[in-house]
Amino acid sequence: MKDTFPIYDICAISEFKRDDILISRFAPYLKSHKNLALPHKHTFYHVVLFTEGGGTHEVDFTTFAVKPFQIYFMVPGQVHSWSFEGEVDGYIINFSVPFFQSFLLRPDYLEEFPFFNGTTDHSVIDIPHPLQSQITQLFEAIIHESEINEKAGLDMVKALMLQIFILVSRLSTGSKSQNATSYNYTLLKSFQKLVEKSFSELKLPKDYAEILYITPNHLNAICKDMLGVPAGEVIRNRVILEAKRLLINRDQSVTSIAYGLNFADNSYFTKFFKKHTGLTPEDFRKQTLTHTHHDSTTYR
């Protein structure tokens, strides 16, 4: 395990640096990037469809059993690692944040898809059998377009990717947000964006409610109705997630992490972290790094 926690830019692992995208079948990608089995972050979007293989894939400290026709959508900043068993194959697409921003003149288009909201529970999806062939054909078409270098090839790749995103998003029929009023849904998305931007400075629902020009009770009602948890828990969960992401970097002390997250002192941070995870920051770091080292020795 390296002392410095790796954060990869698209240019560091892409053969298509100029176009901010990497497109590959998964087996050769895995062979070329074995170091990516260890925990790391990306500054880009990461889409993986497994078509064969087993083992585990961990995203933001949640472990998933790898199985065929399981698709992963990861956003910049998420921590992930994998420990595979046997031969693994599928498809992978890495693309930078600006890649879609000018397309269709909709810079926020990706935010409409629930699997790109950074919530782990929404980002791992099993593709049902009736859809598997169609999704596979779309990935194959993307591979083909990346190889033939035809006119408007990148636009065709984007169009094919959007077909995949739309088809997969239609599987999320259980989302409460689909039945919500557009006003409340817009408020929820605004709240989530604010939390992502300000979770280390603003820790109370009333702070966000004030910015959104609504009451704390209204904000809580929206979160409970659409997410199943109160607004305060949304904020706390984001703080805990960031603390976990920082703790697996051994170069950062627990004290520096506490101050970076705007806790008054290390003691308060430790109490907060233990209350919501059951472990002290030091115990979480020790447990995670031990688990990571074991996984890296079983990688093949």
Write the layout of secondary structure elements.
Blueprint: E1 7-8, H1 10-13, E2 21-25, H2 26-32, E3 40-42, E4 45-59, E5 62-65, E6 70-74, E7 79-95, H3 120-123, E8 124-126, H4 129-148, H5 153-169, H6 182-198, H7 205-212, H8 216-226, H9 231-247, H10 254-260, H11 266-277, H12 281-298
Parallel strand pairs: 1-3
Antiparallel strand pairs: 2-7, 3-7, 4-5, 4-6, 4-7, 6-8
Mean pLDDT: 86
What is the CATH superfamily label of the largest domain? Regulatory protein AraC
Determine the number of helices (DSSP H or I, runs of at least 4 residues): 12
* Percentage of β-strand residues: 15-25%
Written account of the structure:
By secondary structure, this protein is of the alpha+beta class. The protein has two domains: 7-169, Sandwich (Jelly Rolls); 177-298, Arc Repressor Mutant, subunit A. The chain has helices spanning 10-13, 26-32, 120-123, 129-148, 153-169, 182-198, 205-212, 216-226, 231-247, 254-260, 266-277, 281-298, and strands at 7-8, 21-25, 40-42, 45-59, 62-65, 70-74, 79-95, 124-126. Strands 1, 2, 3, 4, 5, 6, 7 and 8 form an eight-stranded mixed sheet that branches. Helix 10 packs across helix 11 (266-277). The longest helix has 20 residues, at 129-148. The relative contact order is 0.11. Mean pLDDT is 86; it is low at 174-180 and 296-300.
